[in-house]
Task: inverse folding
């Protein structure tokens, strides 16, 4: 992660704030910052979304392309994730130096999507064993400051909900099957993203887990717990990161907190998706 | 594509513009708060973000120059920016070539001798590509540099021009760029009229060169007027708030 150097005084200020349940921006430990999600902003894509949370800004573009299915799963489509930590966010990501972080984030997303079975991949199959839809989810980190994994998962969910896949008809039988794309560009299907989970990251500061840490808070937290939560509040994945450790009791509290927060975040995404006018960037 | 009408009998282009008409240009200055200077520029359907970091310390000793600032430029295109998905956002041949061209352009425009032993980072990212990527990038970088407060000789304004049926056409969109005509991209310092960036793709007859170049320079003057008003509006707003 991009480093943020804090002085001892800053660290103790943040720690005491967490103890008093009043963080530097006035939030309590359980408060999520408000974010702005806009979808349908890049016209070259099948679906897109942009999220702004304080200074973190991520743009996600989804492209649906026809390709060959994985031989192990001939009757399923594929989703591929790619995260580009661009140099725009920080000169530290210049050249190929943002690649490691990007690959790590993409891997986390694909793990989450694979393990939670949240998207019906069979609906993306066109001709089993021959053709399927490959959904390329490309994220671009434009500004980087805290909560990147959370934002990324929210933006990806928003972009997938916005994605339109052209309707196809398969002509012919047996070996000589052909695909025909509908002439009407509005004739399309969308992806069911109802079950898609989002990440809720909790950071341990002192002895307390906090929700939606800012860049400064992330820098003085020794360990993070990223929890994948779906709309029902079920946990889809858990990963502990960082060098710190925590007690079993804290873990239970953290998980129930994450599940609660996750549900409210997903509610907000659905709300913006349903009401959002398709505005430009 | 051969019978595609780039210029209708009425003299209008495929998107309804007149031959010398620019696309609608809008710009959001200070788009990224983290950077020292940034601009989001939209010209028609081409959208670009440029950020500037610096002048700051050089990251490698070899970059330090005793008499002027080192300018570093990275041009990249989002993987979803083009109609065909790109495999990598940066590092391919055309991106590297563009990076170098942009670097040279701005070395000519920035008063680099003001900041010896330091480095200025310029990063451009195409979010959505619909023709004239380089020209729009140059305009966006200019705005970002002004936002960063880096002294320059003048604005650098750029437009792309092609020639269809002996009529010069300014500010190309994707279809016109891919069309049969030659493409000339020219970047100038509008006040002095000096050319700092020039690129011609495919053959262009020497007799037509003058005509096309002149139209490009005229386009740059118009871009300059727009950018100048945008900057002044932005400053007014930031002074008032």
Result:
């Amino acid at each position: 992660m991009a480093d943020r150097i804090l002085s001892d005084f800053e660290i103790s200020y943040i720690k005491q704030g967490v103890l008093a349940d009043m963080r530097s921006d006035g939030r309590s430990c359980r408060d999520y910052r408000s974010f702005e999600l806009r979808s349908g902003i890049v016209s070259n894509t099948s679906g897109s979304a942009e999220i702004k949370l304080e200074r973190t800004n991520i743009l996600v573009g989804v492209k649906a392309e026809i390709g060959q299915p994985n031989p192990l799963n001939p009757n399923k489509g594929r989703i591929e994730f790619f995260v580009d930590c661009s140099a725009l966010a920080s000169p530290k990501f210049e050249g190929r130096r943002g690649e490691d972080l990007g690959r790590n984030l993409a891997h986390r997303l694909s793990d989450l999507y694979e393990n939670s079975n949240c998207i019906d991949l069979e609906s993306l199959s066109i001709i089993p064993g021959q053709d399927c839809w490959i959904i390329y989810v490309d994220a671009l980190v434009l500004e980087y400051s805290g909560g990147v994994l959370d934002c990324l998962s929210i933006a990806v969910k928003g972009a997938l909900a916005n994605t339109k896949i052209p309707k196809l008809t398969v002509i012919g039988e047996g070996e000589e099957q052909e695909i025909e794309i509908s002439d009407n560009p509005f004739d399309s299907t969308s992806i069911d993203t109802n079950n898609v989970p989002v990440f809720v990251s909790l950071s341990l500061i002192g002895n307390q887990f906090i929700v939606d840490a800012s860049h400064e808070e992330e820098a003085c937290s020794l360990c993070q717990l990223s929890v994948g939560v779906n709309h029902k509040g079920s946990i889809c994945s858990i990963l502990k990161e960082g060098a710190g450790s925590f007690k079993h009791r804290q873990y239970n509290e953290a998980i129930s907190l994450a599940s609660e927060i996750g549900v409210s975040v997903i509610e907000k995404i659905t709300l913006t998706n349903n009401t959002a006018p398709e505005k430009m960037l | 594509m051969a019978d595609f009408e780039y210029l209708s009998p009425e003299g209008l282009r495929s998107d309804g513009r007149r031959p010398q008409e620019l696309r609608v240009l809008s710009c959001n200055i200070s788009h990224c708060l983290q950077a020292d200077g940034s601009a989001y520029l939209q010209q028609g359907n081409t959208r670009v973000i440029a950020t500037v970091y610096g002048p700051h310390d050089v990251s490698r000793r070899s970059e330090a120059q005793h008499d002027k600032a080192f300018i570093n430029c990275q041009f990249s295109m989002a993987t979803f920016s083009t109609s065909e998905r790109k495999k990598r956002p940066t590092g391919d041949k055309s991106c590297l070539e563009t990076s170098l061209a942009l670097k040279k352009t701005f070395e000519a425009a920035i008063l680099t001798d003001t900041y010896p032993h330091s480095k200025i980072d310029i990063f451009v990212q195409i979010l959505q590509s619909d023709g004239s990527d380089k020209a729009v990038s140059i305009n966006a970088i200019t705005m970002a540099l002004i936002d960063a407060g880096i002294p320059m000789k003048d604005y650098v304004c750029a437009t792309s021009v092609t020639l269809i049926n002996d009529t010069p056409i300014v500010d190309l969109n994707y279809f016109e760029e891919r069309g049969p005509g030659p493409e000339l991209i020219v970047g100038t310092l509008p006040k002095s009229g000096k050319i700092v960036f020039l690129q011609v793709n495919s053959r262009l007859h020497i007799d037509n060169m003058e005509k096309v170049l002149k139209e490009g320079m005229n386009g740059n003057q118009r871009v300059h007027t727009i950018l100048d008003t945008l900057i002044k509006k932005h400053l007014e707003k930031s002074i008032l708030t």
Observations:
- The interface with chain B takes residues 42-45, 48, 55, 57, 59, 61-63, 65, 82, 84, 86-91, 94-96, 136, 138, 140, 142-145, 280-281 of chain A (CB under 8 Å).
- Chain A has one domain: 8-273.
